[in-house]
Amino acid sequence: MPLPHRHALGRAVAAAVLLTALHAHAEDAAPAAPAEPPTRSAMDAPLFYQLLIGELELSNGQAGVAFQVLLDAAQRTGDEALFKRVVNIALQARAGDQALQAARAWGDTVPASAEAHQTVVQLLALLNKPAEVPKPLTTLLRVSPAAQRPGLIAALPRLFQRASDPKAVLAALGPVLKAQTGDTKAAALFAEARLAMAAGDNNRALTAIRQLDAALPDGDDAMQIALDLMPTEPRAEALVTERLQRKPDQHALRQAYARALVKAQRPGDAMREFRALTEATPDNPAVWLALGALELELKQLPAAEAALREGLKRLDVPAAGTDAEIKARADGRQSAWLLLSQAAEQRGDLKAAEAALQNVDGAGLDVRYRRASLLARQGKLAEGRKLLQPAADASDADARASLLAGAQLLREQQDYVGAFEALKAAAERFPDDPDLVYEQAMMSEKLGRFDEMEALLRRVIQAKPDHHHAYNALGYSLAERNVRLAEAKQLIEFALKLAPGEPFIVDSLGWVEFRLGNLPEATRLLKQAHAGRPDAEIAAHLGEVLWASGEQDEARRVFAEAARRDPGNEALREALERLKVKL
């Protein structure tokens, strides 16, 4: 073993001398205290020398030597603090296997140490070795206090969330979780559901969720997992709706479910849940604002304005609270007035829209966009575009958002060439952004450049294979032009696998079935899409299929309802003209 560097040794000696001097000074300064029997240290001279050498080697950058010297000392003494020190030395040196070696030696030397076995489990997760976890995990649960065991089990999904092979984690930990009974059973079901979800085993996740719900019928954990599973497993939604039928007073769950429906692009269904919440919790301004925003999105303008004003009434009531709560109320007011301005603009009342904007502070992009939109509606498009220009010192994220907003303004004014060029310039500035290319493709379609649109969409798919909007847009475009229908259906079905239940994709699938002549299936799919999102374009498709199926009265009803909400919708107008339907 090399001798310690003399400067390091000098520092150690100097530190010892300083401590001795300080101790002597403290003894001189302090009043005399009653003599107490000295506590004899367990450290003998050889151990002291071994620890000193280990620390000096570490200070000299010889982490490997220090690790071996101090690990030997820890094994000889059984000192847990020393074992922890050795593990940390290995981790700081990025020597994961050595850290695991030390942790295992710690568990072998002090078998009753829960911390030792927990460290082994954590290191195995860090080193991506799930197959080796069951034995130390079982030991950890055996030696830990009973009150701590559920928490240790519930933490497993988070511990293994970065695992490279989630299926291997589930296979390794599954038997240990299945073996749990009594007070640890619910935690084991929670962990199993989360691990199965990560592994893509939806059937097993659903089974565990049902069992957890039965074990804890008033708990939140089962329903939270079901909500998280909804985007990839439609059956999970039934678990949530069943709970809400049994316990309709679980308002927090209903609100979480409504937010999940919004995320799933199902505003019609989300609106239903938020409307129920306004009846059950009328003093909650958040549910009124959410309802108003959804009604505005679906062009239900009078209802949207009424809901937003109800929310404002409750926000305007003076109320004490924390700084965060006060800020949240202020943000809510800003959002409500912005939405009211948008609603007034859509009604064509530009004066009321401008008046609503006067209640909004700040110069964020959302505020600037509303002002730009009002200017454009008054024939001042160039002036409005200036408001949306990114600042010279804007971050990439802010610049990208501003460029997209500028393109959207042009699109709303039906300047599709201008929008295309704006998006093309943005895509050149941010060449790795598939969403910008996707938006450019949508403008190509508006311009009738279908080959260009397809090339752009295939670029998006190549860059981002899970971009469900790109698959759906390409499939729908083919179906709309009544070409390559088998390919169109394949593209749309793949998009639906990526985003199960999304109404616009279900609408596309219904439309391609209509083009293929499958009227009953087309009707079923389009009714499903319209129920989730009563959008005018989906209504136009549903009405046309109903008309072709001989259900003209029902078709007229669907057309009329859509026309009341969104009379200027292009797809609806074209359908009515094509079918020569008078409302």
UniProtKB/TrEMBL annotation:
PROSITE patterns: TPR (PS50005). InterPro entries: Mbb1-like, TPR-like_helical_dom_sf, TPR_rpt. It comes from the Bacteria. TPR repeats lie at residues 536-569. Residues 1-26 form the signal peptide. Keywords: Signal, TPR repeat. The keyword Signal applies. This is Tetratricopeptide repeat protein.
